[in-house]
Specification:
It comes from Gossypium harknessii. This is Jasmonic acid-amido synthetase JAR1-like. Belongs to the IAA-amido conjugating enzyme family. There is one protein chain. The chain has 571 residues and is of the alpha+beta class. The chain has 3 domains: 198 residues, Rossmann fold (3-Layer(aba) Sandwich); 176 residues, no CATH class; 144 residues. The chain has 20 helices and 20 strands. The strands form 4 sheets. Strands 9-10-11-16-15-14-12-13 form an 8-stranded antiparallel beta sheet. The protein has a 4-stranded mixed beta sheet with strand order 2-1-5-4. A 4-stranded parallel beta sheet has the order 3-6-7-8.
Length: 571
């Protein structure tokens, strides 16, 4: 008997979202009230003297702004197994690990059923708007998702990356079915112990079901680019597996092999078709629509540190729409992309006023003195740091993200992600963000395009071992580049940091010449392997764009793989 699956009612979801954003101010007050009522007995809130009050004014007067470091001792007690209500009324049984790429080591963040429900609410909301623009049939999705292992903390709590905690939740699968978004790969592949093997099998499953695939997605666009770069290396082996109906010996885990054996049958016609399509492509341009003729769009987080991968993704996707997924973090969700036909570079996110209580610190004033404003009080065109109060025990928590308000959807603001606050290149009065670094790399890498080469990945470091200190940019390039071109790239990088503090410091040599270090092919793969070895999931991996001296192991990987180094003569 085929189980009948109730599909989501897209119109109803959109209607609910519209009415909620029209009443954003009241919804925010009610949401705060609900959070404080559910968690009022928690030790953290008890100690702050709220005494049962749930209004925003009392909340702001009693509860301080905090960072992760302030909450670390409380979270540590939860991790160690204390069952008393510390941050939440109900006990926390699961801990999320952040990707760890910002600070060099993962942070522990509480995860609970309420956070899972807000995750699914965000998924359903953006799905409704996406489906209205790009209707999909009831096929399958090539979801390049990977789940790292969940472990137990010494206190007996389940710990895993945020994405792993979501993918392993039973509600996730049901929601995906209701969204006509079933993954074409079996669970054994998603939860496979080795991501190289899982990636190969994801690609193989995609090819087996190539006509049914409706969209391609991953948590981050990096994983999609990584998958198709891998396809370029292994496509002939994939064809051989399909032709013979026998899985390559590179897949060694019995659970994965037996799951794939159920799907893989000899199919020489399909193998010939894929072989012919691959040989007919020019430098793999348009690979995705060639392999998957019914794909409607490509979906994943494409903003922030993922923007540099868009050029390569467009190369593979040709004219398929790229849709940036929703805005959130391991700590919680913030907004949904309800304008899916906008290119990722312009993507904005509408805050869902019922998934948390939100405040915003204006950044044009001195941050230490600036008073946070509420969700409906932000001003268009201004930049803010985001503060969240969640259902999972974070109260007035500084997320460290800088956003710009680009407009309002009814009464709820539309936010554009700008950068992480703490990812700054700075030596003295200079301040360059991740976005500034990205723009500099884009400008300089244009000099490589005449050589038909691309910058595969990049990172940076502030080297204070020299006097004066200087910026170091690490590049991994797809082939050999002439010396004079790289020297000009180095000068171009230096000139592209237009921050007034940087330029004036360079002119008087208070900051030394910028250094471009070219690393050997595969260096950034080594960094990815390093994080996966620490327990990060490939789905959640973000290349660290600015490597501080505290992130010593990654800095060593970069420095040990340098093949050429250039100093700028731009100033």
């Amino acid at each position: 008997m085929i189980e009948k699956m109730e599909l989501l009612d897209v119109d109803k979801l959109i209607e609910e979202f519209e009415s909620m954003t029209k009443d954003a101010g009241n919804v925010q007050r009610e949401t705060l009230k609900k959070i404080l009522e559910e968690n009022g007995c928690a030790e953290y809130l008890q100690n702050l003297g709220l005494n049962g009050r749930t209004d925003p004014e009392s909340f702001k007067a009693c509860v301080p702004l905090v960072t992760h470091n302030d909450l670390q001792p409380y979270i540590q007690r939860i991790v160690d197994g204390s069952s008393s209500p510390i941050l939440t009324g109900k006990p926390i049984t699961t801990i999320s690990l952040s990707s760890g790429t910002t600070q060099g080591k993962p942070k522990f963040v509480p995860f609970n059923d309420e956070l899972m429900e807000t995750t699914l609410q965000i998924y359903r909301t953006s799905y409704a708007f996406r489906t209205r623009e790009f209707p999909i049939e009831n096929g399958k999705a090539l979801q390049l998702i990977y789940s790292s292992k969940q472990s137990k903390t010494k206190g007996g709590l389940i710990a895993g990356t945020a994405t792993t905690n979501v993918f392993r939740n039973s509600q996730f699968k049901n929601t995906m079915k209701a969204m006509q978004s079933q993954c074409c790969s079996p669970d054994e592949v998603i939860f496979g112990p080795d991501f190289h093997q899982s990636l190969y099998c994801h690609l193989l499953c995609g090819l087996i079901f190539h006509e049914e695939i409706q969209f391609i997605s991953s948590t981050f666009s990096h994983s999609i680019v990584h998958a198709f770069r891998t396809f370029e290396q292994v496509w002939e082996e994939l064809c051989a597996d399909i032709r013979e109906g026998v899985l390559t010996s590179r897949i060694t885990f019995p659970s994965v092999r037996s799951a794939m054996a159920k799907l893989l049958k000899p199919n020489p016609e399909l193998a010939d078709l894929i072989h012919k399509k691959c040989l007919g492509l020019n430098n793999w341009y348009g690979l995705i629509p060639e392999l998957f003729p019914n794909v409607k769009y490509i979906y994943g987080i494409m903003t922030g540190s993922m923007e540099p991968y868009l050029k390569k993704l467009r190369h593979y996707a040709r004219d398929l729409p790229l849709i940036s997924a929703d805005y959130g973090s391991s700590e919680g969700w913030i907004g949904a992309n309800v304008n899916p036909n906008v290119p990722p570079e312009l993507a904005t996110y509408v805050v869902l006023p019922d998934i948390g209580y939100f405040e915003f610190i204006p950044l044009k004033e001195n941050v230490e003195e600036a008073k946070p404003v509420g969700l409906t009080e932000v001003k268009v065109g201004e930049e803010y740091e985001v503060i969240i109060t969640s259902f999972a025990g974070l109260y007035r928590y500084r997320l460290g993200d800088v956003v710009k308000v680009t407009g309002f959807h009814n009464l709820s603001p539309e936010l554009k992600f700008i950068c992480r606050r703490n990812l700054m290149l700075t030596i003295n009065i200079d301040k360059n963000t991740e976005k500034d670094l990205q723009l500099a790399v884009e400008a300089a890498s244009k000099l490589n395009t005449e050589e038909k080469l691309e910058v595969l990945d990049f990172s940076s470091h502030v080297d204070l071992s020299t006097n004066p200190g200087h910026y170091v940019i690490f590049w991994e390039i797809s082939g050999e580049v002439r010396e004079e071109v790289l020297e000009e790239c180095c000068n171009c990088l230096d000139r592209s940091f237009v921050d007034a503090g940087y330029v004036s410091s360079r002119k008087i040599n208070a900051i030394g010449p910028l250094e471009l270090r070219v690393v050997q092919r595969g260096t950034f793969q080594k960094i990815l392997n390093h994080y996966v070895g620490l327990g990060a999931a490939l789905s959640q991996f973000k290349t660290p764009r600015c490597v501080g001296s505290t992130n010593n192991e990654v800095l060593q990987i970069l420095c040990n793989n340098v093949v050429k180094s250039y100093f700028s003569t731009a100033f």
